[in-house]
Every structure is written in structure tokens, then in C-alpha cells.
Amino acid sequence: MTVQVVRPAGAGHETLYVLLLCLAILLAAGSVVAWHSETDSETSIESHQIDARRDLTPAEQGIYADLRVAFDEIQIRRDEEQTLLSPEEMADEGFPPFVDDASAVSRGSHQWQQLPGDELAYFGASQALDVAGSLLMLGDAEQAQADIWLNRTSSEEPSSLDAQSLIAAGWQQIASQYDAGVTRQHRH
């Protein structure tokens, strides 16, 4: 008679195989994440500039966005009619931030005027500097975007529109940098 010994099924080998499979999956996932990760490259702005995404109040962000849209419309109309629209004409046509409505009141009640000269230059004197600073929009025919400046300490019209004079008078240029971090802010 032959006796054959049958060992019970051991869970040791099966557990080892499951653990090795889990380790392989974790290593594969880790390498994919490392391969697809973005470098944390923060673009710096100059000392006279202010970041449109991080450093503006909500009211200032709204006016800034409105001015960028208005600049496009001003350029289109200037090309068609060979003249610049006045703030009153833009208000009559309903272009924010030039129109005097409830939104304008909640954003600082800016009083808009077109500055003299050949340049596209609009100045908005804030009536509530604690809500939003005074704004200045400058541009010319060759620019794709307007240069927008902010002054949170004064509602006085700038005496000169060159960058050095504006900086000396306390104006800050609003810089908008759209990169991968626009929707993801990393606060460290």
C-alpha cells in the first residue's frame, strides 16, 4: 500500500504572488505620475507689476476683465470709423466698465475719461479706493492687448503716460500670465 501525503493548500505562495502584483501596480502607477507631473515653474513679474490673478481685489479683477474686452471693441471701431470712442459713447452702448450701473457702483464708482493725445488712453478715477484702485488703460494700433495700470493710493489723473513716470507716481502695471497654474494655485 502506498501512502501519498497530500499537503494542504498553502496560502503562503498565493499571498506572495498577490503582494508582488500589488507592488508592480504601485511602481507602474508611481512612474506614470512622475512622468506626467509638471514642473513648478513660477514666472516672476517685475517689481512695478502686479499679478492679475493673485493680487487684485474681486472688484479690480472684474474691471480689468471688462477693460480687456472694451479694448478689443475700441480697436475694431477705431479701424472702422478712424476715431476713438469716448467713455460716454461706450457707456451709451452699454460697455462695462464705462456704463454707470449697479455693478460700477459696487466696483468703486469709477469716473472715466479719455485722456488727450493721439494714444488710446482712458483713465478711471476711483471714488472708493478701498474697493478698487484707479485704473489707466493705454494702447496703440499695433498692440494685441492694452496695458492696464492700477493706483490704489490716488484718484488723480497721471501727469505723464510713459512707464517711468507712472511707476514714479505709484502706478503698478497689471500683468496677466496664463500658464498651467491658472486653474491650480499652489500656495506654499
UniProtKB/TrEMBL annotation:
Keywords for this protein: Membrane, Transmembrane, Transmembrane helix
Pfam family of the protein (one): DUF6162
Transmembrane segments: 16-35
Stored InterPro entries: DUF6162
Keyword presence, Transmembrane: yes
Lineage: superkingdom: Bacteria
Protein name per UniProt: Periplasmic protein
Organism from which the protein derives: Phytopseudomonas seleniipraecipitans
